Model the fold of this input.
Amino acid sequence: MKKSKLFENIVHGIFLILGLITVGCVLLITVYLIISGIPAIREIGLFKFLFGKEWASTAAEPKYGILPFILTSVYGTAGAILIGVPMGFFTAVYLSKAANKRVRSLIEAAVNLLAGIPSVVYGLVGMLVLVPAIREIFNVPDGASLLAAMIVLAIMILPNIIKVSVTALDAVPKEYEDASLALGATPTETFFKVSVPAAKSGIAAAVVLGVGRGIGEAMAVMMVAGNVANMPSLFESVRFLTTAVASEMAYSSPGSLQRNALFSIALVLFLFIMLINATLNFFLKRDKEK
Amino acid sequence: MKKMIHLLTVTVLLLCVLTGCGGSKEAVATDGSTSMNKVIGALGEAFEADTGITVTYNATGSGAGIQAVQEGRCDIGLASRNLKDEEKAKGLEGTILAYDGIAIIVNPNNPVSDLNVGTIAKIFTGEIKNWKELGGNDAQIVLIGREAGSGTRYGFESITGTADKCDYRQELTSTGDVITTVASNPAAIGYASLASVKDTVKALTVGGVAASEATIKDGSYVVQRPFVLVTKTDAALSESAQKFYDYITSEAANRIISGAGVVPAN
Done:
C-alpha cells in the first residue's frame, strides 16, 4: 500500500516537472526577449524604431526603422489570408458536408501531407517555379516580391484553415441540418445558412490560426520575398519581421546595437503573436461557453 | 511533505538537464565563413586521414566565427575578410590561408561578357540601369546581392567601393541562392565565391581578365579577397589545433587548397 503511494508520488512529480518545463520555456523566452529587446528601443527611441522608414543596420550611419518590416508582415499575412481563407473555407464546407467518404479521405490525406511539408521546401519550389512565373506573367524585372510571399504563405496556411474548419463544421449537431432540410431548404442553403453560422467561432479560430502561422513564417518567405528593406509594394522586393531577424542575426556581433535591434524586432513580432493568441483564445472560449 | 518531495525531484532533474555539456578530446573546432566550407572540408578530411584527429566546421559566417574564437568556443576562427582594427585590438590575429576570387556572374543568355570595376560599381549603385547601355539586351538590370554582414558582400563592396550604396533587388542569404536566382533570371547580375560558380551561370571577365588561379595570385584579377585563419594572440592553441594549423599552412596542403578552387597564400 505504502509502496504504491510512493510510486504515485513519483509519477506525479515527473508529470509536474514536464509541465513546468513548458511553463519555464515560455517564461524564459518572454523574459529574455524583453530584457534583450528593450535596450535598443531605448537607444533608438520607440517612435523612431517603430515608425522609421529606413533600415540600414550596417551602414556607416546606421538607421533602425522597422516600419517597412511591420507593414510588410501585416500586408503579407493579410494577402495570404485573402487568398487562403476563401479556398480553405470552401474546401472545408465541401469536405465536411458534401463530399462522399472516398473523396473526403483522399483530399484529407492530401491536406495532411501539405501540412507536413517543411517550409524550406515551399521556399525552394517558390524560388524555382513561382518567382520566375511571376516575372514572366506580370512582365516585371524580377519575380521575388510581396506577391510571391503572399502566394506561398496562402498555400502554407491552407492545411491549418481546412483542418480546424472541418472539425468545427463536423461538430454542428445533425439535428440543425435535418430541421433545415425538413423545412424545405436545399442542401446548399442548409450548409451556408445553418451549418456555417453554427460553426462560425471555430472557423474564426481557423483564420486566426492561419494568421499566426503566416506572420511567424521565416524560411519560405526569405527565399521568395527578396529581403530588401523596402516599403511594401506588390511587385517589389520586401523584408518581413521574421526574415529581418533571421537574415542578419548570424552576422551581427553580440552586444552591438544591430544585434540588440534584432532582438527588439523579435520582441515586436512576439507581441504580434501574443495578440493573435489572445484573439484565438477569445474565440475558443466563446465557443466553449455556448 | 508531498510538496517538498515534488520540489526536490524538480530541482534534482533540472540540475541534471543543466549539467549535460562536457568536453571531448582530440578534436579541432573551426567556426566561421560559409564561403570557406569547401576548403576547410577538404583540409579537414585530409588531416583526419593522416592523424586521426577530427576537425569540426561550423558554418556561421565570418563575424560569428571571429566572435566564437574570441569567446573560446572554437579553436580556429575562419573569416573571409581581413580582421578589422577593432577586432585585432581585442587580442586576435589573422593568418592568410588562401585567396578567393569573387566572380561577377550573369545569366548564360546575357551577351555581355566583360565589365571593368568602375562599370560594376555603377551597375550596383544604380547609375546604370539597363543592359542596353552596356551593349546587352533591352532589359532592366536586376541586382542580386547578399545580406548585410556577409563576407562575400563585404569583400565585393569594399573592392568595388560601393559599401552601403548598393541598390539591390534581392538580398539572399547564401551563395547557392544567389547562383540559383541568377541562373533563372536573364537580366540578373550577382556575385559569388569563384569556387562555387557552376555552369548554370556565366562568370564575367573583369577589365579583360578572367578569374583563375594564376590571375588571382598575381593580382591581375582584382575582385578577390583573403581567407583568414583567426587565432588568439594571448592564448596558445591546443596541441591538436596547433597540429592542424601547422598542417594547413604547410606547403603540403597547397595541393588540397587549390583542389578546393582557391589560391593558396604560401
Chain A is about 80% helix and 0% strand. The interface with chain B takes residues 9-10, 12-14, 16-17, 20, 56-60, 127-128, 131-132, 135, 141-144, 222-223, 226-228, 237, 239, 246-248, 250-254 of chain A (CB under 8 Å).
